[in-house]
Specification:
2 domains, three-stranded antiparallel β-sheet, 12 helices, about 15% strand
């Protein structure tokens, strides 16, 4: 008997499982990319699981490294008589430094966590004229110098195994007569922002954003990000610190910030309001602790046309914090630092006693000549109440931390 042709049989039954498997595979790929892909100014970064290694895809030629702190150009002298002499005035006898206060030395987390490196630096520090030591307890890479019970710190793997090393170091410094401050990088954080992307600064497509250093930032609009910093401050105080220096208390401000998207800003809350709200919580915390002094680093130049770049208004800082730290660059010619910029700070503040609260940050490199560093210190002392000698790796020029050159 004739039967009508009904087409090939049995293929539909195989097709459905295949499509299901492909859909599941595509979903897993999208989930992997969502958690491990980020846009940077240099290209797209893919973070490999388990190893944590970053692979740069579609790299472009790097942009010139900006001056991250100071946007002001130093105008050339008008006449030869105004040129800064290479044979600048010799600094005074270093014994005079004893009469100053806030002569600070920075010790980075990587040195603080390495006993041999710390002991080597401390052997030089013991002979220096410093009276204050600033310990980096939360670095910009997100790592902590202490063990934290914060849920986000645990999730990010940010903490140290225990607090023994930091407690011993703090006790030793205090017993030896130093003032000790804990430096905390607030919103620039390369661990917590990656592990809690809801609290990260992101693009409109909800992809985490990286600055020119390929570092992620927490979003100051997010309450969870602010809570995390406050939780860490509680733990730092519990370790015995009486003073904290906060850095990166602002929104991301260098790199391709035009890619960032903040729903709160779209709804009418500006960045300064968000940062001011965070500062208020910090100040309330310091009052709660009673004997806690909180200082802050100003991240911008007082000559910036925007009164609150990155949401950080200088007026908010001076009204709230114990001391204001700011990086002061060296002039393009000559030795010392740009004292004109310190004058700009005084003008911006308009307080006659502000010099007692202002601490210039003097950045050094390992290859600097000791005499040049002493000139930095001398010129800083003529305008302010001390200085913070800073080297991001803790490798100061030979002889600078000793009572005599080696």
């Amino acid at each position: 008997m004739y039967r009508s042709y009904r087409g090939p049989r049995g293929q539909t039954g195989c097709l459905i499982p295949i499509l299901t498997v492909l859909c599941i595979f595509a979903a897993l790929v999208l989930l992997f990319l969502y958690n491990n892909l980020a846009f940077t100014p240099e290209g797209t970064v893919l973070t490999l699981p388990f190893s944590g290694r970053d692979i740069l895809i579609g790299a472009r030629a790097p942009e010139p490294e900006p001056n991250l702190i100071i946007e002001q150009d130093t105008p050339p002298p008008e006449t030869p008589a105004e040129q800064i002499s290479e044979t600048a005035e010799e600094p005074p006898n270093r014994d005079e430094f004893e009469t100053r206060t806030e002569k600070s030395i920075f010790i980075p987390l990587e040195v603080l966590s390495d006993k041999n490196a710390f002991d080597e630096l401390y052997s030089k520090l013991d002979k220096s004229r410093a009276d204050t030591v600033i310990l980096e307890v939360k670095a910009e890479n997100g790592k902590l110098a202490f063990s934290s019970a914060s849920a986000l710190a645990v999730k990010a793997g940010a903490g140290s195994p225990d607090n023994t090393n930091l407690k011993n170091t703090l006790t030793k410094l205090i017993m030896d007569g130093y003032n000790v401050s804990a430096m905390v990088s607030c919103f620039r954080d390369d661990l917590a922002a990656r592990k809690s992307q809801a609290n990260a600064a992101r693009t409109k497509n909800k992809v985490i954003w990286l600055d020119r250093g390929n570092i992620t930032w927490l979003n100051p609009y997010n309450e969870g990000a602010c809570d995390y910093i406050l939780e860490l401050i509680d733990e730092i105080c519990a370790l015995g610190f009486k003073e904290i220096l906060l850095t990166n208390v602002c929104f991301p401000y260098y790199g391709k910030t035009n890619l960032l998207y903040y729903p709160d800003e779209e709804e009418g809350t500006d960045k300064q309001t968000a940062i001011s709200g965070f500062i208020s919580r910090i100040i309330d915390k310091s009052k709660e602790k009673q004997d806690l002094r909180v200082s802050i680093k100003h991240e911008f130049s007082p000559t910036n046309e925007d009164p609150a770049p990155g949401g950080q208004a200088l007026s908010d800082l001076t009204a709230s914090f114990y001391r204001i730290y700011a990086e002061i660059p060296r002039p393009e010619a000559g030795r010392g630092i740009d004292t004109n910029l310190i004058e700009e700070y005084f003008k911006a503040i308009g307080e006659t006693d502000f010099s007692s609260r202002f601490v210039p940050i003097l950045e050094t490199t390992e290859s600097d000549e000791p005499a040049d560093v002493f000139d930095l210190i001398y010129t800083a002392r003529t305008k302010g109440n001390g200085y913070l000698l800073f080297n991001e790796n803790g490798k100061y020029p030979k002889g600078v931390l000793s009572s005599e050159t080696d």
